[in-house]
Structure formats: C-alpha cells, structure tokens
Design goal:
single chain, alpha+beta, two-stranded antiparallel sheet, about 50% helix, elongated
C-alpha cells in the first residue's frame, strides 16, 4: 500500500506541474523549466512541456491498477484470516465472468467495433460475457475518445462490492453436466470355498 501511495503521489506531482505550466502560460507568467531556468512560453511550447510531464505519469501508473487489485485482495484475505468476514455474499459468477470482472478492475478490457479483448494480452473476450456482467449491473460501458478503442469498460459500485466480497473466498465447485455413474450390480453372496 505504501508503494502505491508513493507512485500515486509522484504521479500527482507530475500532473500538478503540467497544470501549473498551462495555468502560468495562460496568465503570461514565467514557467520553471529546470534549475534556475524561467521562461515565458507560448501556448504551443506550454502544451509540449506539459506533455513531457505525462510520460512519467504513464510509467508511474502503468501497473497501479494491477497492484491495487492485488493489494486489496491481500488485505481482504488478511481480514478473513483474522475472522473479520464481511456479511455480504457476492453474486454467483461463472469462471469467465469472474475473470473478466477482475480484468475490468485492472483496466485491461477494451472494446473496439463491439469486440472486447484484453489489452495487455490481446486476447479476445466474449461480448456475451460483458453483456451478462452489464445485465447484472456489475460493469458499465462508456464511449472513449481514445483512438485505440471505442468503449471503456469499468466497474460499477455493485461490481466493486461484489469483487471485494469475492476476494479470498473459496470458489464454489463447478456444476457437472454428467450424471453420476450407475452402480454396477453386485454378485450375490455365495459360500466361500
């Protein structure tokens, strides 16, 4: 958790610097470009300088969602081990739905041309799985102006609650589709020789 806090603080510092550059430029104030270097920037220069601050932000936050999810799961597992069990039971989800819910929490699910896939692995995901999670109110899609995807999928409040409640909980055994084996007839008991 400390590591996540440091990454978030460093990223926030870079974003605040970018905003300050743009604000100072709009106000006609000089901008600090390095040690003891002040300059009044044009709007184009200010945008470029602010853009340079976004590169480290992307690096600092690249693994943040995965780390946050792992940290939350460890925290809940520790709470369960100490007998602090939440009373809320999560919705019963299939293995595919549970996997996609976690992927959405990490920010890995992208939808392009109504075809979802996992961004990091480039693996296709069934749109019916996304729709099933939407129908349960666990995820929501929204348009994204990003050039790499048409829609962004994120967790709803109910999705976050269900995901957190599922942490460190034993997964129920899958349903079987086969019938139990019919017992073989036993031979009648006879005399031993």
């Amino acid at each position: 958790m400390r590591q996540l806090a440091h990454l978030a603080t460093d990223a926030a510092g870079q974003l605040i610097d970018a905003v300050d550059i743009l604000d100072h430029t709009c106000a006609g104030l000089p901008v600090e470009l390095g040690e003891d270097v002040l300059a009044v920037l044009t709007e184009q220069e200010a945008r470029q300088e602010a853009g340079r601050r976004l590169t480290p932000v992307a690096s600092l936050t690249a693994l943040g969602s995965s780390d946050a999810l792992a940290t939350a799961e460890l925290f809940v597992a520790d709470r369960r081990r100490r007998s602090f069990v939440p009373g809320y039971l999560p919705s019963a989800l299939s293995h595919a739905q549970s996997t996609i819910l976690r992927s959405v929490a990490r920010g890995d699910v992208a939808i392009t041309d109504d075809k979802p896939h996992l961004r990091r692995e480039g693996i296709r995901v069934s749109i019916s799985t996304i729709r099933a999670l939407e129908n349960r109110g666990l995820v929501m899609r929204e348009d994204c102006p990003d050039r790499f995807r048409d829609e962004h999928v994120h967790l709803t409040a109910a999705g976050r609650r269900d995901l957190a409640a599922s942490f460190a909980r034993p997964r129920p055994a899958g349903l079987t589709t086969t019938r139990p084996a019919t017992p073989l007839p036993t031979a009648p008991a006879g005399r031993a020789r």
